[in-house]
C-alpha cells in the first residue's frame, strides 16, 4: 500500500516542496520579527530619532508600545514552544 499511495501522491510532490519552503520562510520571518536584539536596536533608533528631534513624542511612544508588545508576544511564543 505504501508504494501505491506514493505513486498516487507523486504529482503532489512539487506542492509539498513549495509548502515546506514557504514554512521555512515563515519561521525565519517570525524569528527575525520577534528577535529581542532586533527590537532593542529599533528601540534605540527611536530614542535617537527622538533626541535629534526627527520624531515627535506621540509617534515615538506609539512605536515603542508596538515594539514592547512584539517583545512580550515573542517571549510568550518562545515559552509556549518549549
What integer value in Å does the Rg equal?
Answer: 21 Å
Mean pLDDT: 90
Main sheet record: none
Q: What are the segments in which pLDDT stays under 50 over at least 5 consecutive residues?
A: none
- What share of the residues lie within helices? over 70%
Strand fraction equals: under 5%
- How many helices? The count is 4
Helix-strand pattern = HHHH
SS-based structural class?
mainly alpha
Structural shape: elongated
How far is it from the N-terminal to the C-terminal residue, by CA? Answer: 36 Å
Number of strands: 0
Please characterize this protein's 3D structure.
The longest helix is centred in the C-terminal third of the chain and has 24 residues, at 57-80. Helix content is 84%, strand content 0%. The chain has helices at residues 2-9, 13-33, 36-51, 57-80. The model has no long low-confidence stretch (mean pLDDT 90). Helix 3 packs antiparallel against helix 4 (57-80). By secondary structure, it is mostly helical. The protein contains four helices and no strands.
Amino acid at each position: 500500500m505504501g508504494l501505491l499511495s506514493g505513486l498516487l501522491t507523486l504529482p503532489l510532490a512539487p506542492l509539498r516542496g513549495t509548502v515546506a519552503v514557504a514554512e521555512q520562510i515563515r519561521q525565519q520571518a517570525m524569528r527575525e520579527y520577534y528577535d529581542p536584539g532586533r527590537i532593542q536596536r529599533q528601540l534605540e533608533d527611536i530614542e535617537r530619532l527622538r533626541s535629534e528631534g526627527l520624531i515627535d513624542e506621540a509617534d515615538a511612544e506609539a512605536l515603542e508600545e508596538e515594539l514592547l508588545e512584539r517583545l512580550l508576544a515573542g517571549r510568550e511564543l518562545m515559552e509556549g514552544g518549549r
